[in-house]
Amino acid sequence: SDTSLKSVRGLSNRFYSPLVKKIAEEENISFEELESIEGSGSNGRVQKNDILKYITDKKSGKTAPVSGTAKTSAKEDQATSARVQTEAPARPKVSVSIGAEDQIIEMDRVRKLIADHMVMSKQVSPHVTGVVEADVTNLVLWRNRVKDEFQARHGEKITYMPVFIEAVARALAEFPGVNASVDGDKIILRKNINVGIAVAKPDGNLIVPVIKNADEKNLVGLTKNLNKLADSARKNKLAPEDIQDGTFTITNFGSFRNQIGTPIINQPQVAILATGTIEKKPAVVETPTGDVIAIRHKMFLSLSYDHRVVDGALGGAFLRRIADILEEFDMNRSV
To answer: Which of 2, 47, 83, 143 lies 20 to 30 Å from 234, alpha-carbon distance?
Structure first.
């Protein structure tokens, strides 16, 4: 072969084990031939039995020869390398047995897109998830006190989510490395802070409408924007621009009374926050006269981040900052 099998990793979006490459070299299997073999392993990986079957078929005349050259220019190598970093490998083939009474449901277009996006995200980004527990007693007491007044004055129901968005927007302004995207070997720091909120639609699918420039809106503006987008999402009335240009995403596990989760990053973003349910718990509270046990309102915050560009120190500090902002919420805040 014109291309050394020892260097195929830079030219291919497939992984070849040392054993497969050794067999290929011993049997004079070219790089082009190796690329043409259908793999039965994970992500289409060529296994030992795949290449041995190819060799057997080739010797018996069942396999057509692969023509062409593996020589590439520097520009082609660069283009191939870029594709490797952005394209998800082919979906692995999994053998599934089907029982006589099992029901088969074809995925609709939206579900297929979601499935492909989730698989691609896990393959592109090395996910790390950090978890903190936040004492949000002040926030809960404030909301209970002002929710009726808020609705009477502004015509909107106030939930916890606008406060979460506000806290995230403040933290993103302080930690711009999390408000970012990855393009090959380049990190893009986003100027705008656009926070997407995962919303469950009536058909069970998810959609992520985006609140643009969330850091520039007050709590009333965030509430109105969020309620309008969520209502449009449930009625399938979102405009294309409503789901574009997000720089960070929040998903609310708490709406299903879940505590902790490991959310999947919404590409090409580099982090996603999951908010858990708020529960009453006994906790140690420090007072000037000593520690006491008190009933507090607590919740877990889970942050998944892309370890290619967000290190543990940055991810941990960012998550801790969100928790601190929520814990320090002003109970006397006006509406």
So the answer is: 143
